[in-house]
Design a protein that fits this description.
- By secondary structure, the chain is an alpha+beta fold.
- The chain has three domains: 82 residues, 2-Layer Sandwich (Phosphorylase Kinase, domain 1), CATH 3.30.200; 153 residues, ATP-grasp fold, B domain (D-amino Acid Aminotransferase, Chain A, domain 1); 80 residues, 2-Layer Sandwich (Mth169, Chain: A).
- Helices cover 31% and strands 31% of the residues.
- The protein has eight helices and 17 strands.
- Helix 1 packs parallel to helix 6.
- The longest helix has 24 residues.
- It binds adenosine-5'-diphosphate (ADP), 5-aminoimidazole ribonucleotide (AIR) and aspartic acid (ASP).
Length: 334
């Protein structure tokens, strides 16, 4: 292919961006080169380019199904995506669900703290300055990058994307700790999501073990960097194949009221139940037997389908709300 040898329009820390015959379409070539801490640390992660291009393609498609406008056009090889050319807004929008990275350093919070609500924050996309954190006024009045209305849109779009991702990744046993997004204007002045969606710009933790499955393995010299990237590729491929785990209608989701009743299994020793049974009998209620004491968990869940919501609640019960070895659970969802 002749275009493969042409000079990149831009060569960044992880990707080369080429023009194509169509002036509105660019070709992004994902390299294996890795940097961290604003390129102070440099290295290679074998096959990272392939993993990041493919995960990005799958996740952009997932978002498009949920009516999020993105620059994604097509994956044309294992390392290359065609994307709509945009004029990038020089802001990094960072969404956080769990404390990690610079948030912990800045605020002295312990890594792993579940934030009361997801946070969307902005950094200035400027390597020389080390991508500093920005306030709203820095953006609108000091740098004059954009206006309040656009900031509001970027925040609400990023938080919407976060909800889609949290739900999708939960289905493949991954916690979305935080991530970085970039947006830009296409030729028709639509503000759309651009750049990449990959373990380079997300923190992914295994939901059961909290094992880090992202670029932190490279940043912190944790070893098995390649293995973590491959594991994420495997899971994202599985997740995007299985429609029952995730449905495109997330944004048209209804809210369901869930009531989960958890009780010790019939043949399991339940000392609390026995004590209550004894006390009741001593009060004269001698006709009772088999007292079991359990718990009830109530919450609301949003989803486009009641069946999917129910299968997710079942997964929650199996993984967290009940101990399936010794407890039975009953789900009531309306
Ligand atoms: P960096 O510039 O941070 O070193 P990369 O190596 O990933 O990052 O280079 C990709 C560059 O291309 C980034 O600066 C990103 O903002 C830019 N980019 C991403 N998507 C598009 C797009 N659709 N149109 C124009 N530029 C884009
Ligand atoms: N990020 C920020 N700048 C570049 C990247 N990739 C991503 C990190 C992390 C999130 O943004 O990969 O997922 C928050 O980063 P930090 O360093 O601010 O904690
Ligand atoms: N992407 C930035 C860099 O390459 C920041 C980071 O990922 O740590 O330095």
């Amino acid at each position: 292919m002749s275009i493969a040898t042409s000079k990149p329009l831009y060569s960044g820390k992880a990707k080369d961006i080429f023009e194509t015959e169509d002036p509105n379409i660019l070709r992004a070539y994902f390299r294996d080169s890795a940097t961290a801490f604003n390129a102070q640390k440099k290295g290679e992660i074998q096959d990272k380019g392939k993993v990041n291009a493919t995960i990005s393609a799958l996740l952009f498609q997932l978002l498009e199904q949920s009516k999020i406008k993105t620059h994604f056009v097509k994956q044309i090889s294992d390392r290359e995506l065609l994307v709509k050319k945009v004029s990038i807004i020089p802001l990094e929008i960072i969404v956080r669900n769990i404390a990690a990275g610079s948030l912990c350093k800045r605020l002295g919070i312990k890594e792993g703290k579940l934030l009361k609500e997801p946070i969307a924050e902005f950094s200035y996309k400027n390597d020389t300055l080390g991508d500093p954190l920005l306030t709203r006024k820095y953006i609108t009045s000091a740098l004059e990058i954009t206006n309040n209305e656009t900031i509001d849109y970027l925040i609400s779009e990023s938080l919407k994307i976060n909800e889609i991702f949290k739900q999708f990744f939960l289905g493949i046993g991954i916690k979305v700790v935080d991530f970085k997004l970039e947006f830009g204007y296409d030729k028709d002045k639509n503000l759309i999501l651009a750049d990449e969606l990959s373990p380079d710009n997300f923190r992914f933790w295994d939901a059961k073990t909290n094992e880090k499955l992202d670029k932190d393995r490279f940043r912190e010299d944790l070893g098995n960097v390649e293995g973590a990237y491959q594991e994420m590729l495997k899971r994202v491929k599985e997740g995007t194949k299985q429609d029952h785990k995730f449905q495109a209608s997330t944004l048209n989701a209804q809210s369901f009221k869930v009531r989960v009743q958890v009780l010790p299994k019939q043949d399991i020793l339940d000392p609390q139940g026995q004590a209550v049974e004894k006390a009741l009998k001593s009060l004269g209620f001698t006709e009772i037997k088999d007292v079991k004491i359990g718990k009830e968990v109530v919450f609301e869940i949003k989803n486009g389908s009641k069946d999917i919501a129910k299968s997710q609640v079942k997964e929650m019960c199996e993984k967290l709300l009940a101990n399936p070895v010794i407890e039975d659970y009953k789900i009531d969802i309306n």
